[in-house]
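Question:
Write out your own:
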Amino acid sequence: MSSLVLALDLGTGGCKGAVYTREGLRVALESRDYATSRPAPGIVEQDPRDYIAAAGEVAGALMAGHAIAAVGFSTQTPTLVLLDEHCQPLRPAIVWQDSRATAEAAELEAIHPEIRRAWFGFDLPVGPTAAPAKLLWLRRHEPEIWERTRWVAQPKDLAAHSLTGVLATDAWCAKGIASVATGVMHPDWMAYLDLAVDVSPPCRPMVRRGDGLTVDTGWSDALCAILASGAVEGPGRGFILTGTSEIIGATRADSTAAPGLFHVPSHVLGAPGVDLHFGPIQGGGATLQWLARFLDRTPEAIFDLAATPDLTPVLFHPYLEGERAPYWNSNLTAGVRGLRAHHGPADLARAVLQGVALQERLVLERARAGVALDTVTLAGGAARAPVWNQMRANILQRPLRVMEDLEASLRGAAMLAWRSLTGEPAPAAWLEGHPVEPCRGQAALASELFARFTMELPV
């Protein structure tokens, strides 16, 4: 058996690929970008053929120099790819950021929660960017395309199909199309969309090609990154995955959903006794980029400006584009409280960085629901700044474990590939990281800031 697997991440900006050993060492990395079209406010689309081309180029480059035993996938989601009966794209993919389905989201939110739970298998927040709202928009506004639609897939599903000839998906990426509980569309949801057939691809974990190559169906980029954090190894583990935006959550041996957060049941994770509770937030690297533009500095210069991870009493709510978890309110606005004449750019820099950390704490507290956490793991591209990482530990007032390999979604996809290949979880070496301890002298201010942060919500 080859000692190498290939991971492919179909992200928002392009496809990344990496080759990993059984011990978790990354030995090669490739990437290809693809274009995004924004022809009007709220409309965000991509050409599905670019997913196939980019994944093919990355896989070809990496497989040419390495003996690959298995391939694992990660994907942006919910990005809807409409396919005909021959698995050919019918229109541009509707990217997860697309928010055109505002009216449809409001209509679906007005439906009784028990009915939506029956349709989708859990309490799925139905905002304009969610799959159900997008599907209803397509049914209403593009009936000719809708009538020809046989499958609604994700970018990774289309890329995997190009490798295997088999169209498949996973239960989590199919959420809002199919039921997470059953893996198929509920008949009443099909009727609401005027569908005669189930358009969700079959849910299956992997495909083995005739040449012996194992291709794992994969997960969403969020779930892959959570897997790489080690949270799925057992209950009582927290995580912060920070990039342009962020994913924060915890695992519990409890299926009680936290208000405003996603709940992934243990059967979807393949981890008995481990239920996942998490939420995405808008802040993270995007907030840092905004501040850099606002102050006419580079992101690196912002950290130099902050200079110290000490907390400041100046309070910043990072709702520059509204907020997802736990509020799901696109009308929320950013705000600064406590700013006085003697404050300068350094105070604003610290306030903005700690504001993101405060939102992380808010979501983490909801996710853990009072359960003690053994560890909180930090990963992602925006975890490269020691000043920000220390500030996070100071706000959380708990130790952080910063992953050594910050490409968490790729790493998680590789772990899925190994699991499909061997039937066993990846070795402990995959989860290596270094600790960041909180400054206990900041505990009182951290508690005060968090209390103010949750009470003084901007509107």
Notes: Residues 173 and 284 are 23 Å apart (CA to CA). The chain has a mean pLDDT of 94. The two ends are 58 Å apart (CA to CA). The first helix runs from residue 48 to 64.
